[in-house]
# Entry
Amino acid sequence: QVQLVESGGGSVPAGGSLRLSCVAHSLVVDMVTMGWFRQSPGKQRELIAMNQTGTPYLRDDVKGRFRMSANRELGIVYLEMDELKPEDTGRYYCNTATAPHFHWGQGTQVTVFS
# Structure
């Protein structure tokens, strides 16, 4: 079973930046389309980015502000977040972009205050 460990979250003012990391496994990151998900307060977990072949997918509300990348040798995926907004607040998880998913990690909390 692949273990996913997210880190890098924090509490930042609006307009700030964070870089999230997700340690998976080198084979996973190299062979599987990975995604970043966000669970905002009172909402379901939603896919916001995935490193699909070609142009990475970014949901419209994060396009231009977030960037997803990966270090395939180390088996780490990143989510670089700039120009953060209060509505970006939530718990962030990485996993396979589509089902079936691996067991979900603990995620990392991002809080953006105005």
About this structure: The first strand starts at residue 5 and ends at 7. The CA atoms of residues 7 and 17 lie 14 Å apart. The beta strands are 5-7, 10-13, 18-23, 34-39, 45-50, 57-58, 66-71, 76-81, 90-96, 108-113.
